[in-house]
Write a structure and sequence with these properties.
Blueprint lengths: L9 E6 L8 E4 L13 E4 L2 E4 L9 E6 L11 E9 L5 E3 L17 E10 L9 E8 L21 E4 L5 H13 L8 E3 L9 H5 L14 E5 L1 H4 L6 E5 L9 E3 L1 H12 L5 H5 L7 E2 L5
Parallel strand pairs: 5-9, 10-11, 10-12, 14-15
Antiparallel strand pairs: 1-5, 2-4, 2-7, 3-4, 6-8, 8-9, 12-13, 13-14
Pfam family, one: DUF6924
InterPro entries: DUF6924
Protein name: DUF6924 domain-containing protein
Length: 289
């Protein structure tokens, strides 16, 4: 598609006329795979997915791109997430990933963008859902996100949770490695939400949902913390979330994490066996399938 570079948007508001209501995306229409995360917001490189809820009315969307105008009050929900634009182009798209507006929201070119999304009436019968989408160059603006919910985004299977937001280039490299890696990474759900900045393993485990029999939605958690993103090996912190299990967390390189995840899911080995195989620096590096 033709890529325009229009002036900054400043609170332009009008109902979007869609043939069929669905979710929204701020993305490069030529981007690859959609985000693996779930929840109100989910992000990958060049792609933000916005869960528009269950309302059937066409939404009213306000777009803003440029310097941080600050978060607005009076909305039901306000969340932030970072998207790394590698192409320097982001457009508002519908659930079919077709552009709804031609404006380029990546006003500063390639690089990280803080996406702050306000929403109201996402699931209100007879009401138009309303959104304010702010696309702000740079990863951090000083405005704190909403407090984290009592439970982490709904997801089943292994989780990769980002808790450090000071190294956007390293995080982008990690996501690129996941996307270009083997099929053994496909079951991992990525949680990229500033609400979990600085969280410990215990805090993350406390926010993973459980069923009526107290079984966790996710029994295996990988954490991309400051130490993981500071090393070329990306040594993620592996945490066993099985009930009544007291295995100590250990670190595992991203290169070895694929075989770790698939063997844990197949129950070929248990968590403790991997933990006992770490090197002297506490990092597991062996790859085997």
């Amino acid at each position: 598609m033709q890529r325009s570079n229009w002036p900054l948007l400043d609170g332009r508001t009008r109902p979007l006329k869609l043939k069929e209501w669905g979710d929204l995306a701020v993305m490069d229409p030529d981007a690859g795979k959609p985000p693996r995360g779930r929840g109100f917001l989910a992000a990958e490189r060049d792609w933000l997915h916005i869960d528009a809820g269950s309302a059937l009315e066409n939404p009213i969307v306000t777009l803003y791109a440029g310097e941080d105008p600050g978060a607005e009050s009076g909305w039901d929900e306000v969340e932030e997430i970072t998207v790394v634009s590698t192409t320097g182009f982001l457009a508002l798209c519908d659930s079919g990933y077709e552009p709804l507006r031609k404006e380029n929201l990546a006003t500063a070119g390639a690089g990280p963008y803080l996406m702050r999304v306000h929403a109201s009436d996402r699931s209100s019968d007879g009401k138009r859902p309303r959104f304010l989408i702010q696309v702000i160059p740079g990863e951090r603006t000083g405005v704190e996100p909403e407090p984290p919910s009592s439970m982490i985004e709904e997801a089943a299977g292994p989780l990769l949770v980002r808790t450090s937001f000071e190294q956007p280039d390293e995080w982008a490299r990690l996501l690129q490695a996941l996307e270009g890696g083997s099929e053994h990474y496909e079951s991992i759900t990525v949680i990229d939400n500033r609400a979990y900045a600085g969280f410990t393993a215990d805090q993350i485990q406390a926010r993973i949902g459980r069923d009526d029999e107290d079984w966790p939605d996710s029994t295996l958690v990988l954490i991309a913390d400051e130490r993981a993103l500071a090393s070329a090996e990306l040594p993620l912190l592996a945490v066993n979330n099985l009930p009544d299990d007291d295995d100590d967390p250990f670190r595992i390189t991203l290169a070895a994490a694929g075989s770790f995840v698939v063997n844990m899911e197949l129950a070929n080995t248990d968590f403790g066996e991997w933990g006992r195989g770490v090197d002297a620096d506490g990092i597991y590096r062996e790859e085997h399938y």
